[in-house]
Prior knowledge:
Layout: H1 12-20, H2 33-49, H3 54-74, H4 78-91, H5 96-108, H6 112-125, H7 130-142, H8 146-159, H9 163-179, E1 183-186, E2 190-194, H10 201-221, E3 230-235, H11 237-244, E4 253-254, E5 258-261, H12 270-288, H13 295-305, H14 314-324, H15 334-348, H16 350-361, H17 366-374, H18 378-392
Parallel strand pairs: 2-3, 3-5
Antiparallel strand pairs: 1-2, 4-5
Helix pairs in contact: 2-3, 3-4, 3-5, 4-5, 5-6, 5-7, 6-7, 7-8, 8-9, 9-11, 10-12, 12-13, 13-15, 14-18, 15-16, 15-18, 16-17
The structure holds zinc ion.
Amino acid sequence: MFPAAEFRPYCLTLFCLFGLLPLTPTLARDLDIQNLQERRSDLLEMHRRDPVAREALAREIAKIDTYLGDVALRAHQPTEAAGHFRSALVYDETHETARVGLIVSLLQTEQLQDALSQAFSGVAQHPDSADLLTLEGEVLYRLNRLDETVPAWRQALALRPDSALQERFEQVERELNRTESYRTSEASHFTLQYDGERLDPDIEEAIVDTLEEGYDEFLRTLDHIPDATITVILYTRQEFRAITDAPSNVKGLFDGKVRLPMGGLTYLSRAARTTVRHELAHAFLHFKTRGRTPRWLHEGIAQWLEPRSSGSREASLAREARRRGLDSPVPFSYPNALSQVEYLIDYYGTHELLELLEHLRDGLSISAALRETYRVDLLGLGSEWARWLDQKHPEGSR
Ligand SMILES: [Zn+2]
């Protein structure tokens, strides 16, 4: 009834990219940031005065800026990091690590066009950089330019085999082969791709209406306007399985694009409409928090926006919570996730929920964001929720 693996955290790819970013090798890891800033000022001063050593000094400044950018990126401050990396590139245009760092920072803040031009410049300067080719492919993929993603990743893999990238490369190749014959249409906030032979125009219209309606509603509820169109790919059932490797009970998927198995429908049922709204909610959450919402919260909010409510299921959730112990960690399940979100809204309100999401967007961990918003950590929230359930549905009640 509840799909098991329907949400694939898109942010994983960013963590992979994080791993690609090496610390500037010539600088010690534990250098004090303040010392470094002072050293940078001294170097700048010398750079102004000493025309002979100017080039060597500029390279030193670029190394420090790159290091500072790396520190900011690891502290989840991509905007600040981008500033440092840009400065590094002013002093040393060909600094590969600075270019990699800048692209990763721009990806994290969804500045895709800027990221793309940086990736193109980087690859032009360093045609044998597996990091830059991987990133170029990543940006192209996010811009839905799959036919250009494939050669970039193929080249990256030839330079440096990598099993995670290999897997994504194969998925994009499959997707590209299938979607080449698809028609694309632009609705006002969506790029819709579908197989023209199989989809009934009335159903397409009903799907677009559902998407646009959901868009207007989520924009207000989640207080966020996505800054690019959202790609929605409609598949027949078999194609959906073939492309996504999703188990057969999965009804839809969001992995940066909304993927929905809709082929063969004769009308848009209530259940299908709910699936469309659920996956669209994942897209909004992803863009609002830049991929930083943990799974339970993603699934809880997506179900709440379907809209779905725990209703009669609550009594059994309360029994489960008592069996586990009211202060035990809450295991992930779709019903638990929905009920926890209902608790947050019921007890604290939607305004606080938005505040929580904004803290996540700004780079706070889920526990830090919960503490900042509700003065409670993840374990504490689990206890509060279990006690709330226990009070609503005490032992012996039905
Ligand atoms: Zn979901």
